[in-house]
Every structure is written in C-alpha cells, then in structure tokens.
Design brief:
alpha/beta; eight-stranded parallel beta sheet
Length: 325
C-alpha cells in the first residue's frame, strides 16, 4: 500500500473575500491510496481557523501510513481526529474500496441512497455594497445566494444585494463576526428582506447567549459544529447544523453526524471549503435531502479537476467514476 499527499493550487475565477481575509488561489491537499495499481483519491482544505496548516495536515496524513490497511475492517476515526487530514484519507479509502468492488460508494455505504442532483447556493464574497449589488444582479438566476458578512456596513450590503437580486432567496454567513446585540438588531429586518437563515453569527465558544434570546432568523452552527461530539454543546442555541467534510473528518462521520443531528431535531445544511470537484463529490452524497446545500466551490474556480462535477439548471450532479466514488 502506498499513501501519498500533494499540495495543489487552483486559480479562482475572481478574488474571494470573507471577514477573515481574501484569496485568489484555492490551496488543497490531494491524498492518494494505491494498492496493486488501484488508486483512491481524496481532497481536503486545511483551515487556519482550526489550527491547521498545509504542513501539519500533510504530517497527520503521513502518520497513518503504517497502520492503514485499505482492504481490512478499519475505522479511521480511531487513528485521526476530526479535521482535514482524516477527511482526505477517509474519502481516498472509500474511493479505493469502491473501485476494487466495482460498485459506487452509495451502493456500499450504509446511510446513503441513490443520489441525484441537488440545488446549491452560490456565494457572493464580501465587498462594497455597489460591487455586491452588481454581483447579485449577475447571479440573480441562481436558486440561492449566500452572502458573506461580518462587520460594519452589513445592512447596506444586504440592501444592495436585495436590490440586485429582488426575488432570489438569500442566506447570510456572518463568520463569527457579530455579537448577540447585532444579531438582535439585524434579525427582524433581515427576515423582512426574505433572508432565510444566518450561519454562525457569534464566535464559537462565545455563543451561549443564543440560548437566551429570540431567534426570529434561524441560526445555523458552522464553526461550532464539527462532528457528533459537538451536538451536546449546540442544544438550545441553534436551529440547523452545517456539515462540512473538512470538519467532520470525512464522509463516514458526516453521514453519522447528519443522522444524529436530524434525530435531535436539527435541520441540515451541507457546506464546503473553497475546493475542487474532488472535494465536493463525496459531499454531494451526504447532501441528498438536506434543507440547504452550499457546494459551490468549483463554481468559484477558474480551473478544476479532470472529469469535474456537472453543474446545470438541475443543480450539482453526483460524480462520474472518473472523478471519485
């Protein structure tokens, strides 16, 4: 068995900005598991917010080379914590096993059904109100717009986006940039503007006040929700959880988190980091039936993997075998 990891870079179609900074390139790690000429692939995006770097995640991947046995009953969750490294290895193993079995991942993995296309949000990055209005007008045909906020001038940005896309459904992502008072002030007008939910308005670890205030605008946990171990800390604070494979540590835990969250009464959103079709491919499987899907990473790229995912009027389609699974 060979386990390899490479650092790959993909140009973005345009600069992408959130409250934490801007980027022009998507930096990803590609993991390959190879046995007897059969290669399984997975992708992850290390995230500094969670203390990850390209180097630290690559080292985590390498640390399991001696214990990895793709053909045996093997629970990766016993060897790596939730996070980007485990995600890439988990997805590479699932891809490899599907190829060896000659079956698709959803035919072999409990909790998955025959997938179809799912409609996805399209993200408008943080900018001036004028530029965000122009971007909203260009993308008003999308089924759902996601707006990055998190600072002074947020209401002006939302009003500009609504002017640019008068009838398009909107969700907003505050990226931990609000306080409870800001949420309380903004929620009623946002509801009147047709905003459907806000992601992570308060910083993770400082969100207890969400349990003490009215939430007219539904609140989705992002940075506060990683895997099933996160769920007890969300009680009473959140209405929805955002499942990202780079947080859960792969598709295996993502499916388990989805089912556990639903059992506790949460709605489900499936999101992504800014990555390629290889990263989105397994997420499409867990996104089946989700209330909100935000798997637009490839739509933000100027270049993508070979055999990329298909995005059309029906949404993002499940992957072809040439890509993954």
């Amino acid at each position: 068995m060979q386990l390899s990891v490479s650092h790959d870079a993909f140009r973005l179609a345009e600069t992408f900005t959130i409250a934490r900074g801007s980027r022009d390139v998507a930096h990803v790690l590609t993991v390959e598991v190879a046995v007897d000429g059969v290669v399984g692939r997975g992708e992850c995006v290390p995230y500094a917010r969670y203390g990850e770097t390209m180097e630290s995640v690559a080292a985590q991947v390498a640390s399991v080379a001696d214990v990895l046995d793709p053909g045996a009953a093997f629970d990766l969750r016993d060897h790596l914590p939730a996070g980007a490294a485990r995600n890439a290895v988990d997805c590479a193993l699932l891809d490899w096993r599907a190829k060896v079995a000659g079956k698709r991942v959803w035919e072999r993995m409990p909790g998955l059904a025959l997938p179809g296309p799912v409609q996805t949000a399209f993200t408008l990055s943080l900018d001036t109100p004028e530029k965000m209005q122009a971007a909203a007008a260009r993308h008003a045909h999308r089924p759902l717009l996601k707006i990055k906020l998190g600072g002074a001038g947020d209401m002006a940005r939302l009003e500009a986006v609504r002017a640019g896309a008068p009838s398009t459904p909107i969700i907003v992502d505050a990226n931990e940039g609000w306080s409870a008072d800001i949420y309380a002030d903004l929620a009623p007008p946002l509801v009147r503007m047709g905003v459907q939910l806000v992601e992570q308005p308060l910083p993770a670890g400082e969100d207890d006040l969400l349990a003490e205030i009215a939430r007219p605008l539904p609140v989705c946990a992002d940075e506060s929700c990683h895997d099933r171990a996160s769920l007890p800390g969300l009680s009473g604070k959140y209405d929805m959880v955002n499942i990202k494979l780079d947080k859960t540590g792969g598709l295996t835990e993502a499916v388990a988190l989805r089912d556990a969250a639903r059992a506790e009464g949460y709605s489900v959103m499936v999101g992504c980091m800014v990555g390629t079709s290889l990263a989105m491919a397994p997420a499409v499987l867990v996104a089946q039936g989700a209330e909100v899907v935000d798997l637009d990473g490839p739509l933000l790229l100027a270049e993508d993997r070979d055999t990329p995912l298909v995005y059309d009027a029906d949404g993002v389609h499940p992957p072809e075998t040439g890509l993954w699974g």
